[in-house]
Write a structure and sequence with these properties.
The chain is of the alpha/beta class and about 290 residues long. It has 11 helices and 12 strands. Helix 3 runs antiparallel to helix 4, helix 4 packs across helix 5 and helix 7 runs parallel beside helix 8.
């Protein structure tokens, strides 16, 4: 999890509520007294892996710190149609203003966690672990990456600032893989000691060049076939962490994992996930 998670979550919630409420929730203002109290429950309408419970409580408390929040399930739990995830008691204004943001977050996060679990289950018994990527929704990366972790995956770098990754465009603009590595290594020593360096390789010759430098923490093996990947991983051995990327999906991930590569990165965990069906329903006591 990113170091300043709580701060970033507060910023995300503030921005999202401002976007949704704007000058005021006129639907609620027009017909509900500001003093009115209410209760609502989150109903599960589709099977999967539940994610976003802590986020939901934080959203409600952002608007009204003294809410009563009763959790009946937790992040990472298997969920089934008809179950209740939580119950919240607050002013009706708080419930209605937060409803859509809570649902948008939880539906999206649950979809990502569910898809990630499907992928990670494929890797049971293998050394390989699954990583997400930066192929995320702008301004929603924090929760998408949290959902990956809830689903059993691992987070790659959170953003451009927490790891150096020299990809094909960096290498081409720089004039070659050795030049790019040397410059990045010197930068780390002078500017950001301890920052890890990962380098993308496109063939076995690139891999040999990277190994010869001795200045890299992880080698990305991009768009290698399973056969090429096995050869590259055998060449690298335990010298440097390895990561396979490109063209990996549910149907072939085990073939890639059979190479004993340390990681496989799959952008589809996030950008191909489908939101799951949840609903927030008012509880009106007769």
């Amino acid at each position: 999890m990113v170091a300043n998670y709580d701060e970033l979550l507060q910023q995300l919630i503030a921005s999202a509520l401002k976007e949704d409420i704007g000058e005021g929730d006129h639907s609620t203002l027009s017909c509900i007294s500001p003093e009115a109290k209410g209760k609502a429950v989150l109903k599960i309408k589709e099977a999967g892996v539940l994610a976003g419970m802590k986020v939901a409580e934080t959203i409600f408390r952002f608007q009204q710190p003294d809410i009563v929040f009763r959790a009946y399930k937790k992040d990472g739990d298997t969920m089934e149609f008809g179950e209740t995830a939580f119950e919240v008691e607050a002013t009706v204004h708080t419930i209605l203003q937060c409803e859509r943001l809570v649902l948008n977050c939880m539906q999206r996060m649950s979809g990502i966690a569910t898809l990630t679990k499907t992928y990670s289950d494929k890797l049971v018994g293998y050394k390989t672990r699954i990583l997400d990527t930066r192929k995320t929704t702008p301004n929603f990366r924090l929760l998408e990456k949290e959902a990956v972790a809830i689903g059993g995956g691992h987070n790659h770098r959170f953003a451009l600032y927490d790891m150096i990754m020299l990809k094909d465009n960096h290498i081409d603009y720089c004039g070659g893989i050795e030049v790019a590595i040397e410059k990045a290594y010197n930068y780390v020593q002078q500017v950001k000691p301890g920052l890890k360096i990962e380098v993308e390789t496109r063939n076995l010759d690139d891999v040999k060049k990277v190994l010869a430098t001795g200045k890299v923490n992880r080698i990305m093996l991009d768009n290698f076939t399973p056969e090429q990947l096995k050869e590259a991983v055998a060449l690298i051995g335990e010298q440097i962490e390895t990561e396979a990327s490109g063209g990996i999906n549910l149907s072939n991930i085990q073939t890639y994992a059979a190479s004993d590569v340390d990681y496989v990165s799959v952008g589809a965990l996030i950008h191909q996930a489908r939101s799951l069906d949840l609903s927030l329903k008012a509880v009106v006591e007769q």
